[in-house]
Design brief:
By secondary structure, the protein is α/β, with parallel strands linked by helices. It has a single domain (about 1-50, about 60-110), classed as 3-Layer(aba) Sandwich (Endonuclease, Chain A), CATH 3.40.960. It contains 4 helices and 5 strands. The chain starts with a strand and ends in a 6-residue tail after the last helix.
């Protein structure tokens, strides 16, 4: 399987910390999955009911992200929204990343959750 990012190379501290924070959304009725298969890809984090994919990318803010166009096309066709965050951004401002995720979840249609 192809990976959506370098997440499959092994868990890092920031991924573990983000995973712990995503699990807090269980109390709101969301159930995120980690290293979840989707067709021929492995997604970093996904909440299927809300159709939200969270990807952690290597690199630094200010440098262009090079998304996997085929993967993103499949996800969008299936109704998913993809949020990408730099690993360094998540390490520096995990609360901000989680707040961004929460805003997207709150803006999802009522049928998504």
């Amino acid at each position: 399987m192809k990976r959506t990012s370098s997440f499959g190379r092994g868990s890092t501290d920031v991924e573990g910390r983000l995973w712990a924070r995503l699990r807090e959304f269980d109390e709101l009725g969301y159930q995120f999955h980690r290293k979840a298969p989707f067709k021929s890809f492995i997604l970093d984090f996904v909440e299927h009911d809300a159709q939200l994919v969270i990807a952690l990318e290597d690199g630094e803010p200010g440098r262009p992200l090079v998304p996997n166009v085929a993967r993103d096309h499949m996800l969008v066709e299936a109704g998913y929204t993809v949020l990408r965050f730099w690993r360094s951004e998540a390490a520096r401002d995990l609360n901000g990343v989680v707040a961004s995720i929460q805003r997207v979840l709150e803006d999802r249609p009522a049928t998504a959750k």
